[in-house]
């Protein structure tokens, strides 16, 4: 029996999901139907501890995954940003500097319409 070769179809349009938490920045790139093409994060790029939450770590993660997928044929992307972290703007800036064309940017951070009682105030 011969092993069949895995064929990857050329994807030119995609969606970029940026989840910026206080501790990390997670980036997933999918095709238009939602199938993941690749992902990266500040931790996966090599940052540890407090440096993971920096804007520089987020931009490095975005450059890493954007370069990888633009070589595979990705051209146009829609960007969806979620979360309050510091890597939000840096990730978009890094994506803008890559070869990918940004068609739309949307903030999909979940905002409660007065849901459950909030947690107690954090004391630092």
Could you characterize what this model shows?
The protein is built from 3 helices and 5 strands; from the N terminus they run βββααβαβ. It is of the alpha/beta class. The protein has a domain at 23-107: Nucleotidyltransferase, domain 5. The protein has a 5-stranded mixed beta sheet with strand order 3-2-1-4-5. Helix 2 runs parallel beside helix 3. The longest helix has 17 residues, at 55-71.
Observed structural traits:
3 helices, 25% helix, 5 strands, 124 residues, five-stranded mixed sheet, Nucleotidyltransferase, domain 5, alpha/beta
Helix content: 25-40%
Q: What series of H and E elements makes up the topology? A: EEEHHEHE
CATH architecture of one domain: 2-Layer Sandwich
Average pLDDT level: 90
What is the CATH superfamily label of one domain?
A: Ribosomal protein S11/S14
Instruction: From the 3D structure, determine the CATH topology of one domain.
Output: Nucleotidyltransferase, domain 5
CATH class of one domain: Alpha Beta
What portion of the residues fall into strands of 2 or more residues?
25-35%
Spatially, the strands of the biggest sheet line up as 3-2-1-4-5
Shape: globular
Number of helices: 3
Q: What structural category do the secondary elements indicate?
A: alpha/beta
* Residue runs with pLDDT of under 50 for 5 or more positions: none
Distance between the termini: 63 Å
Specify Rg, calculated over alpha carbons.
17 Å
Number of β-strand runs: 5
Major sheet attributes: 5 strands, mixed
